[in-house]
Structure formats: C-alpha cells, structure tokens
Amino acid sequence: MGSELIFRGHEAQPVDDSYSPKPHKPWFTVTRPIHYMLREQRLVFVLVGVIIATLFFTLVPSSSSSSVPYESLPISYFERESKIPAYHHRVAAAVHSVGKVPLGIKRKGLRIVVTGGAGFVGSHLVDRLIARGDSVIVVDNFFTGRKENVMHHFGNPRFELIRHDVVEPLLLEVDQIYHLACPASPVHYKFNPVKTIKTNVVGTLNMLGLAKRVGARFLLTSTSEVYGDPLQHPQKETYWGNVNPIGVRSCYDEGKRTAETLTMDYHRGAGVEVRIARIFNTYGPRMCLDDGRVVSNFVAQALRKEPLTVYGDGKQTRSFQYVSDLVEGLIRLMEGEHVGPFNLGNPGEFTMLELAKVKLGFSSNIIL
C-alpha cells in the first residue's frame, strides 16, 4: 500500500501586485536626529566633550605666546635672507651661512667628496667634515694615502671609501668637491712625473666636469710651488712667479698651474662655483716620514737618534703651519664667497737652523 504527501499550502491565494506608498510622516526629518541624539545619552557625551575642550584651551597657554612675536624680528634678518645667493638656497638655507644656524633649525648635512682623502691633509679634513655632520665620500688610489688614516670612520653610515684614480671619470651626486688628489712631496711626485702631471691635469678636468654636471662647489688645493723660485718674499697672490717649465719639479709645479687655469676657465666659461687654495708648508700627525720634506726629515732623524742634516748654510727661510689650521682655512674658503686664489700658510718665517734648534730642541747634533 503506497503513501503520498500532498502539499496544500498557498494553492488558491490571490496575489495583489498593486503598489501602495507608505503614508507621509510630517517633521520626520527633524525628529529623527533629535531621537538619535537623545537615545543612549549621546547628547550628554557631546556636551561633556565641548566643556573639556574649552577648559583645556583656556587654562593651558599656547606655545606661540611664549615665542618672539613676528613684529619684533629685526629688519636686517629678512634683508640678510633675501641676499643669500642661489647656491645657498639650492643646498640648504643655513648650510653655507657664516653665522650661527638659527635656533630651532637643524643644520642640513652636506654630501661631500674628498679626493685624496686618505692622505695627510685629506684625512684631517675628513675628520672635521664628519664631526660637523656631513656625509663624506673619500676617493683615493692609495699611492701616498693610507687606509689607516681613515680606518676609524669605518662603520660610520656617513662615511664611504672608494679606491679610484681621479684620472678616470667618476659619477657621484654631491654638493661639494674638495680636490686634494696629487702626490705633494718631491720624493713621490718625481717617482712618476708623467703620472703626476696627468693627475693634476686630467684628474682636475674630471672633477671639474663632475662639479659642472651635478652643480657642486669645487675647491682646488694648489701649492706655493706655483710661484717657482720666487723673487718676491713673501709672495702675494698677485705675484705670477719665477718658474721653470722644463725642470725636474715641473711635473708638479706646472701641473698645479695648469689645474688653476682649468679651474678658472670652468668658472668663467661654465659658471662652476670654484675656490683655489695655495697651500704652504704644513706639518702634523699622519705625515709620511719618508716624503723628503724638511720637517719630516728632521723628525725621522730625531726618532732614529741621528744628527739633523741642514743643507747649505741653514739660513734658508720657510714658514710652517699646523695641519688643523690648514683644514680650518680650507673649510672657511669653501664656505666663503671669494674665489681666490688664496695663500694658506703661516706669515711668520724662520731659518732651517732656527727650526732645528728652537722648534725641535736640537742644538748640538746638527750637520751642515
């Protein structure tokens, strides 16, 4: 006997498809927000928040009330700001100003490349730039420079070291270029005269090209040797010198003179911002004892407990400056507004005998 399920729901229910809108309720748009605010005490919380905010801004003094009003700033401040050259505005408003950075404005660190930065003077310059907060890229081929001079900066995120010869082009993004790359002592620059003059000419040309491409300020470290065998004592920057273009030292002397010429031509012809420093005798830590210069010779002989050797009658005069003073002069020249050339040295001169007797404390063990 079979069974079956029979669905009997909704069989004959009539369906009304006609639309009847809801009746319009007057003031509904007004009463609905009111009901929303009154429900769950929302209005009370809003009023409490307004009261708290009013009390806070009334009782707590604003930070601007304690600062100097705008009207009290001297007129000269704005005049000085308006006279800042375009180079200053391009790098940072307070980076190259000679005065102090205004309170509340942190000095923006520059990105600086120092060629020959592992050498005697270059390493001390790197120390100063790192200490003031700049990012420094040292470029050196280690012909006379040494890694030990900059090794204490390894691990510093603002320090980079590139083993590179400036005779080959180099592409970097920098704000300033200190061009110190070149052997400076007779022993070293006479070792390979052609390489020395290529470093002075081609290397300077490459660094000037980099300065032109990236809009960087360029400082050339020239030398007092551009005056040759001078007939004027002391030498002024306007003195053209008494030079020998075919001598054994000419690879260095004439190379630096050519480097100065290139620097000024890039300044006049391409608008590159340049500075030229003519460095005189310098001494200090990290000097090479075998560079053949008088101070290092005396120091090396003194350390070996040998008699000091003075050539000639010992009445030749020289001036000597400490390396920290030279670095200070280079930085001031770079930050200043004058192109140069500028002599950087000690205005006081003394004889080689005085250097041996008075400065180094030797009087009896001197060989003339």
Folded structure, characterized:
This protein has 368 residues and is an alpha/beta fold. It has a domain at 108-285 and 320-348: Rossmann fold. It contains 11 helices and 13 strands. The strands form 4 sheets. A 7-stranded parallel beta sheet has the order 3-2-1-4-5-6-11, sandwiched between helices. Strands 7-10 form a two-stranded parallel sheet. Helix 8 links the parallel strand 5 and strand 6 (274-279). The longest helix is centred in the middle third of the chain and has 22 residues, at 193-214. InterPro entries: NAD(P)-bd_dom, NAD(P)-bd_dom_sf, UXS-like.
List keywords for this structure.
single chain, 368 residues, alpha/beta, Rossmann fold, seven-stranded parallel beta sheet, 11 helices, 13% strand
Name the CATH superfamily classification of the domain at 108-285 and 320-348: NAD(P)-binding Rossmann-like Domain
The major beta sheet can be summarized as: 7 strands, parallel
In which range does the helix fraction lie?
Answer: 25-40%
Architecture (CATH level 2) name of the domain at 108-285 and 320-348:
3-Layer(aba) Sandwich
Q: Rg to the nearest angstrom?
A: 38 Å
Oligomer: single chain
Biggest sheet strand order reads 3-2-1-4-5-6-11
Range of strand content: 5-15%
Supply the helix-strand structural class: alpha/beta
> What is the name of the CATH topology of the domain at 108-285 and 320-348?
Rossmann fold
Order of helices and strands: HHHHEHEEEHHEHEEHEEEHEEHE
What average pLDDT do the residues reach?
Answer: 81
User: What are the segments in which pLDDT stays under 50 over at least 5 consecutive residues?
Assistant: 63-99
Pathway: Nucleotide-sugar biosynthesis; UDP-alpha-D-xylose biosynthesis; UDP-alpha-D-xylose from UDP-alpha-D-glucuronate: step 1/1
Organism: Glycine max (Soybean)
GO molecular function: NAD+ binding; UDP-glucuronate decarboxylase activity
Cofactor: NAD(+)
